[in-house]
Amino acid sequence: MDVFFQQLINGLSLGGIYALIALGYTMVYGIIELINFAHGDVYTLGTFFSLAILTLLGVDSVVHGPALIGVLAVTILGAMILCGLTGVIIERLAYRRLRNAPKLAPLITAIGMSFILENLMLYWRGPSPVPFPQVIPNPQFALGAVTIQAKQIIVVLLAVVLMVVLQTFVYNTRLGKAMRATAQDKDAAQLMGIDINTTIALTFLIGSALAGAAGFVSGMYYGSTWFFNGFAAGLKAFTAAVLGGIGNLAGAMLGGFLIGLIEAMTTQFISDQWSNVVVFSVLVLVLIFRPSGLLGESLPNKV
Amino acid sequence: MRLIEPLRARLPPALRTPRAGTALVFAVAIALPFIGRNGAFTNFLADAGAFVLLALGLNIVVGFAGLLDLGYAAFFAIGSYAYAMLASPQFGIHLPFWVLLFVASGIAAVFGILLGAPTLRLRGDYLAIVTLGFGEIVPQTFLNLAQWTGGPNGIGSLDQPVFFGYRFGFNPLPYYLMVLSLIALAAWLANNLRTSRLGRAWMAIREDELAAAHMGINTTSTKLAAFAMGASFSGLAGCALASKLQLVSPDQFMFNVSVFVLAMLVLGGMGNIPGVIAGSLILSALERFILPQTTNFMHNLGLNVDLTNSRFLIYGVILVSMMLFRPEGLIPSRQRKAELHAGAGDRRAAAAEGELLTETIR
């Protein structure tokens, strides 16, 4: 039973990372109905950007006291801005021209963009795993036989805080309203004076910035990354978005935590080798039996 | 095309038909290894041929039926492993190659149906991600089931095909001729399918699924047929390549392979058989000759650039730039070209309509 609770904690913190990535998938899918295959790679890029910023700051070991807050703020915000801009560039280059083309076309460019990003990262940081410095002091708390690490709490907290900020933004601001309107009906939104190009670019900016935050968190959590990390993580996060109901922000969060739990439990009780197989099987099963997800409403089939 | 037209006009009418062109291409293809008399080149042709088979199969799914299958390598893996398990010391089973060719493609087709039956009702983009997931599950499963599949080492010393007492051995030539005949068969089949009732149903679904359904096409079974047919081609390719390499291992069937084959289609021209074959040959040549040669050339110039590492980057660039600037491919099918450019026309029409509306409002 202790093992179960330990994996519950591990799964939740894993899930926090997936949830942050899933938010980006769900936002982009919600607004232009495109599976942005490059999103997982933007997340890996977030880890590499954070690493570059830490190197610039000259930080390679644990930081204490007020300096820690400064370092964290600069690194996370820096990674979020850089990833956000990457997302905007990707949309501008690969997706905007194809907005009215047959569905197949942007899906193919999305796969192409993912390959391009992966290989640029391969050039940048090489094929082997790159270590990520431990910046945060990591005290551990014992609850009976279960240990909770400080970084696990940070992952979950950051995911929840960003999610709440995003939810507030989308439902309580003018820009958020513009995003929802664009998602519902682009033509009508345009006629109401909404600049849909800017709105869609904004969606990519926010989604990719969240992936950047996830990238930092994942570097901190795992202590290393490599250029191909985003492929599997992206697929799992997309599974999370679908499981929660695509287009639904709270759903992406819920799906992320569930996928994290499923992965942790599979690793513990079946075997590490099978965790990917189990998660992707969940994807297939959800799509077949409940394509609208747990919290989503069933989508009308737009033809 | 513009270069070929005047030349063609000078030919006697009997030689101007597409059939004569096809015959010419195949005659050249058969002659190629005898002209070069170079083992490495023949070896390349045999490998490239297997990928032509894959591209022809994926073309049925993506090009004809318009279903984006991102896990196509999984069926390739299934075909290869089927051969490996039934013709190797692994289980001590040694069935003849020619029987297994059909068995492997049949098994791959069955898996195509098993995957397709529940998923083909999904919207196009969901199908893409489900097939992507399937493409990850299959090699991972072959990797994990080590007691049957040899795990990461795969299965080795597979049987070599024997043709009326002639053992293929390690000479690439018989493999090349075998693959070439399979390509001929596959291209003939695909071309006949294209103009058949089924083929036109595929294209109707590609263009407008709802309209196709209303015209009385059973969309699920039609799409399933495309999946099964595409999978069976890759089963053939898997069997042929496994017998040539005499080895299968999970890393031959990763996501890269699916994207490699997709890039062949996008480059050559989705839906057009000559285009797909050309695209496939261009990319195989790029991988085997052009990149290493250019790298050598750069080294001789004193530039330390290794282009062989950048092949996946190049596939990515091909996918993006072709879809943006020439979505119909280098050698397009006329019908597909019209479809893919319809979007741009729509946009202009929509813009015009928008202006009209704004004017009315004013």
Sum this structure up briefly.
With 303 residues, chain A is mainly α. Helix content of chain A is 73%, strand content 4%.
List the helices and strands and how they pair.
The complex is a heterodimer of chains A (about 300) and B (about 350).
Chain A: H1 2-32, H2 39-57, H3 66-95, H4 104-125, E1 130-131, E2 140-143, E3 146-149, H5 150-172, H6 174-184, H7 186-191, H8 196-222, E4 224-225, H9 229-244, H10 249-269, H11 275-289
Antiparallel strand pairs in A: 1-4, 2-3
Helix pairs in contact in A: 1-5, 1-8, 1-9, 1-10, 2-3, 2-4, 2-8, 2-9, 3-8, 5-6, 5-8, 6-8, 9-10, 9-11, 10-11
Chain B: H1 4-9, H2 18-36, H3 39-64, H4 72-86, E1 87-88, E2 93-94, H5 97-119, H6 124-144, H7 146-149, E3 162-163, E4 166-167, H8 172-195, H9 197-207, H10 209-214, H11 219-245, H12 255-268, H13 273-300, H14 311-325, H15 334-361
Helix pairs in contact in B: 2-8, 3-8, 3-11, 3-12, 3-13, 4-5, 4-6, 4-11, 5-11, 8-9, 8-11, 9-11, 12-13, 12-14
Describe this structure in words.
The complex is a heterodimer of chains A (303) and B (362). With 303 residues, chain A is mainly alpha-helical. Chain A has helices at 2-32, 39-57, 66-95, 104-125, 150-172, 174-184, 186-191, 196-222, 229-244, 249-269, 275-289, and strands at 130-131, 140-143, 146-149, 224-225. In chain A, the strands form two sheets. In chain A, strands 1-4 form a two-stranded antiparallel ribbon. Chain A is globular and about 60 Å long. The chains are: A mainly alpha (303), B mainly alpha (362). At the A-B interface, helix 4, helix 7, helix 9 and helix 11 of A face helix 6, helix 12, helix 14 and helix 15 of B.
